[in-house]
Design brief:
This protein is of the alpha+beta class. It has 9 helices and 7 strands.
Amino acid sequence: MTRRLGLLAFALHSLSVSALEPALVAQKQALLERVATVHQYSAAELAALRELVMGEPYLGQGNPAITEHAATREACTAARASAARIGDAGEFARICADQHMAPLFDPGTQTAQDATACIDQYEFPNIPCEYPVVWVRAATAARICQALGKRLCDAHEWEGACEGALTAPDYRFDLAAGVGMGTAVARMQSAHNRDHAAAKRWSYGPAYRKGVCAAASHKSSSCPGGGWSNCGSNTYPAGHFPQCVSALGVYDLHGNAAEHMNLPLAPAQMASAGSTQLGVTEMKGSWFIFDRYYAHADWCRWRAPFWHGSRVMDAHSHENYHLGFRCCKTVPEAVQAQP
């Protein structure tokens, strides 16, 4: 019965998308063209990305019929024109072997040269002043990252990027042993948040501040909860708020789109250790209405409850109008070894 209802919901949702197909297809095509122009991906990588983007019925930058973006790309470019940049773009690109990625390291004991991983500086598609991609399932996000030579980030990597210091993984795997996913997440989340709450920080400082990040937009008036036909993805262009950046040079870790991340429940599920057998979904950060309605905590090392929880690679993992992602990448050994 549950499966039949799920298939019915998917069919109805697909009908609503098909009615908007020309506009949504045009949005996706324009997005893919900008990715090809900005990023130096290979033809094979771009082809794989196209297949994934065009193969998902909702994935894009929001329902074109109702989305009201909070600022234009041109306004974003103007806002960033005189803003100071963190780090050296050339050095970052050399270390990460990619554009618009930031090395992850602990400035207290390391330099950027010591980084063993990098993270996208902007929400996917990782282009300054481009709107984030939303309506993406965690499984699809992981496949997109993989198609582009990257991977989904582990939770501690996102948290380190936000707080400005990548520290050693501190997952309480012992609390996850022998119990179901929901119980494991609840135990691990409680222990983790208790350990970090006294020193909580945001990417820009020690207290929540309004007006610093992309969090002053609004929900569609027709959006009581969720749904493609009711809820516009009223995001800002990525990087529109140049002060909403961490000490490692990563933007929009608060506001704009919440982000899929991998939460491993065992060592064998850590993407940062090379595993493709990923753990469960976690939604990091916050989204575009938080200056108006602070729906939940969003400090850097806060871990969320098991909202809409599933395994990351579950074919039916969650998607919605304010949920996107960014990718991480393990630093190539040859690059890492350079003087």
